[in-house]
From TrEMBL:
Organism name: Microbacterium aurantiacum
Domain Mandelate racemase/muconate lactonizing enzyme C-terminal: 132-267
InterPro entries: D-mannonate_dehydratase-like (IPR034589), DgoD-like (IPR034593), Enolase-like_C_sf (IPR036849), Enolase-like_N (IPR029017), Enolase_C-like (IPR029065), Mandel_Rmase/mucon_lact_enz_CS (IPR018110), Mandelate_racemase_C (IPR013342), Mandelate_racemase_N_dom (IPR013341)
Domain of life: Bacteria
Record-given protein name: D-galactonate dehydratase family protein
Pfam families the UniProt entry points to: MR_MLE_C, MR_MLE_N
Length: 412
């Protein structure tokens, strides 16, 4: 029987190799190290403080093997429950403990979760454009890289760049889109839902004509529609067979999805801004969604996301983990281990990080032919380089807000 692995220290590491990341490093008395991702885009230091000031002092001396017990302790003893800051902090601890357990066992984390249920995790890439020509180049570049599932975002004529549009021409080289801006504190984008909803079906009609029926196409509406607008857009998109329509309405009121469901069979994905199984209760038990967008990083870690996905599995709802570049390589690795192990895996979002990120985080996950594998290193398979991290100091960056043409603040 394995003895206890007492926790010696928990350090919070904040670095900014091209963008900000918060990483928790837990070290046992025997010197085994585990890493957890605690990055909450635009609010990074709130989680860093939660971990440094409130969680790290509680961890010293605990047995790193007791993952479930530590999760329940951190969740219940805080008294004030849930929310993105708390659940990202708990997630980081949880990931680091799974990493430690894997390193001690000499096994990759997916083996500890029950072993592989598939050879690799299907991933979707991003393509976007200022117009259809630009979008076409972007889609062709992703197809050449072997992706079989692609998210399409395009600027609406007369409305500026808007959500999800890469600033450079996206053909050739790494695809980049980073909504958090260092340019200033209050960045705003203009928005007109009616214009967008009129424009989008034609974009997907064009895409099917241009790229055929085989490629899986996705779209993110980023919380901007009313229930009736969402129902109608879902219906208008049906001929183009989307893999999913994401975040069609703001998520605070899940019951509005009932109306959307009554009018469309376009698959619905929701939940990147939610962070617990309780937030998903209505969405799942009433089968109002097809895919859970929660991430390991913001949803209490591997332990809690697995619980949520097991619940979803009873309703034929699948995973679709959030994976833009604000999920660090540690969070991405944790997601991939879970993707490989669970039965109800759907798809994984993937956007490659900037080259500087690889200087700080050494990863063992790999991409090939539209799929990813977490690798077979013990634990999560990610190492952190402190010397490299010291070259990239934290620099504040904030997500934008959206404003309607008449000046009204809107959901971004
Ligand atoms: C997006 C994200 O990946 C997605 O689906 O909705 O890019 C989201 O905007 C960012 O995570 C915000 O930090
Ligand atoms: Mg999204």
């Amino acid at each position: 029987m394995t003895g206890a692995a007492r926790i010696r220290s928990a350090e919070v590491l904040v670095a900014s190799p091209s963008r900000n990341f918060v990483t928790l490093r837990i070290t046992t008395e025997d010197g085994v190290v585990g890493l957890g991702d605690a990055t909450l885009n635009g609010r990074e230091l709130a989680v860093a403080s939660y971990l440094r000031d409130h969680i790290a002092p509680l961890l010293a001396g605990l047995d790193a093997h007791r993952i479930e017990d530590t999760w329940q302790f951190l969740y219940r003893s805080a008294y004030w429950r849930r929310g993105p800051v708390t659940m990202s902090a708990i997630a980081a601890v949880d990931m680091a403990l799974w990493d430690i357990k894997g390193r001690i066992a000499g096994l990759p984390v997916y083996q500890l979760l029950g072993g592989a249920s598939r050879e690799g995790a299907l991933v979707y890439a991003h393509a976007s454009g200022a117009d259809l020509e630009d979008l076409g180049d972007s889609v062709r570049a992703r197809l050449e890289e072997g992706y079989r599932a692609i998210r399409l975002q395009v600027a609406v004529p007369g409305m500026g760049a808007g959500y999800g549009i890469s600033s450079g021409r996206a053909s050739g080289g790494r695809y980049t889109y980073e909504p958090a801006k260092r340019a200033g504190l209050r960045v705003e984008e203009g928005w007109d839902t009616a214009r967008y909803a009129r424009h989008l079906p034609g974009v997907f009609e064009w895409a099917r004509h241009e790229f055929g029926s085989e490629v899986m196409l996705l779209h993110d509406a980023h919380h901007r529609l009313t229930p009736t607008q969402a129902a109608r857009l879902g219906r208008d998109l049906e001929p183009y067979d989307l893999f999913w329509l994401e975040d069609c309405t703001p998520v605070e009121n899940p019951e509005v999805l009932r109306l959307v469901r009554q009018h469309t069979v376009t698959p619905i994905a929701i939940g990147e801004v939610l962070n617990s199984v309780w937030d998903f209760r209505t969405l799942i038990s009433e089968q109002l969604i097809d895919y859970v967008r929660a991430s390991v990083t913001h949803t209490g870690g591997i332990t809690h996301l697995r619980r949520l996905l097991d619940f979803a599995a009873q309703y034929q709802i699948k995973s679709g983990s959030h994976g833009p570049t604000d999920i660090s390589p540690v969070g991405m690795a944790a997601a991939l281990h879970l993707d490989l192990a669970i039965h109800n895996f759907g798809i994984q979002e993937y956007m490659a990080h900037a080259p500087e990120v690889a200087e700080v985080f050494r990863t063992s996950y790999r991409y090939a032919d539209g799929s990813m594998h977490p690798g077979d290193e013990p634990g999560l398979g990610v190492d952190y380089d402190d010397d490299a991290a010291a070259r990239f100091a934290y620099s504040p960056a904030y997500l934008p807000a959206a404003r309607l043409v008449d000046g009204t603040m809107h959901d971004w």
